[in-house]
Each structure stands twice: as structure tokens, then as C-alpha cells.
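User: Hey, quick favor. My workstation is busy. Could you predict this chain's structure for me?
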Amino acid sequence: MILTTMLIPFLLLLLIPLGFVLKFGKVTRKVTHWLLFSYIGILILAAASIPFITVSDQTLEKVELDSDAWGSLFDDLRVGQLDSPLAQPFLVKQSELDLGQKDLLQLISEGEDRSFNVLLERKEENDNKLEVFLFQGKFIMNGYDFSFKLEPRHYALHDHTDGKALRFAALNQTIKLALTLPEFTIRQFTEEEKWVGSEHWHRADNQIIYLRVPHDLEVIADEDDFPFIEYVQK
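Assistant: No problem, here it is.
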């Protein structure tokens, strides 16, 4: 809506001289002066209207990209180090679920996404409790952290044949981002391009699902649904 409103004055500025050319064959100096003053007025109006345009109050600052942190966290979790200093910045969801007296747990994944890793740790006791830890990697674009845009994977525990089922919902998220240079009025004098284009770069890590299960609980999962599943080796 805002974009359409902004385009109307510029279209008028283009159509007016075009109309003069078609009717009189040329554009007089008086008309060109009028168009110039109109153009300057539109620029001033656009600059003055910026404070009244509703925008997100999210302020972003450039961050240092630690390309080794996510891989190091995965290595720590593979040996059961949930207390790793790297864990807390990436932990987005944690819960404890009651298995009742069931001794069978089936993992079910919906959708076509198979990019997440699942780590299973067997506890020393049989407390009938399932602990779930969800770790989310970072989404960095041109040095800015957009990880807050990512949705954690949803899961729920259900009754299933001869036991319980931990069902992971399909995750299909589309994030539309555009990084631009300074405002239009500034670019009129600096001659900067609007879009950064090929200078864009991004880094998006996967999710890690860490499960702590009772010692004697039988866990079954389809290899096609969970190609990246392994037991924690303490």
C-alpha cells in the first residue's frame, strides 16, 4: 500500500512532460522549472513522512560470526555435555514429558525436512520421564543476526500402539529479507544503488534435538525419517 502511494507522484511527473511532448512537440522552460520544483517537493515530503511510517522496532547490530561454535556444540552434545558453555546461547526450547508406565517410544517426523540431528542419551535411572532439548543454529545475513525470525520445531507426545509416540511437526518456514542502502532521498545525491545484490551472503545452521530417555526405554525410529540419529557416548 505504501509503495503504491509513493509511486503515484512519480508516475504523474513522467506523464505530465510526456503529455506536453505529444501535444506541443516540446516542453517549455517554464514547465521544466515547475517539474523541478515539484520533484524537490516530493523529495522533501518523502523525507518528512519517514517518521510516520510504521516499521519494526527491532534494532539490529552487526555480530561477529563464530563459524566453529555450532560444530563445537554438536561435538560436546555427542558426548553428553549438556552443561557445555556453548549450549545456552543455542537452546531455544526445553521440556520434560511424562511417559507413564510405557516402555516403548516411537519417533515420528512429519513433512519432508530431514536436516535436523537427533541425539539420544540413556539415563541411569528409569524415571518414566522424557527430557527434550531443542537447539537452534544461527541465521546470519551480511553480518546481521536474524535468528529471532526462526521458529523452533514443534513436537508433542501422544499415545501410540504399545507405547508412546513423540511426533515432530513439519517445519516449512519462509523468511523474506531485503537489505538496502540509505533512503531514497539520500541516494539522489550519493548515486548509490538501491540493492546490494550479489554482495549478500548468509549462514543458516540446522537444529539439534537432544533426548534424555529412561535407561530401559525402547526407542524406535524410521531411518528414512531420521537419517541423522545417534546415541550419546559418554
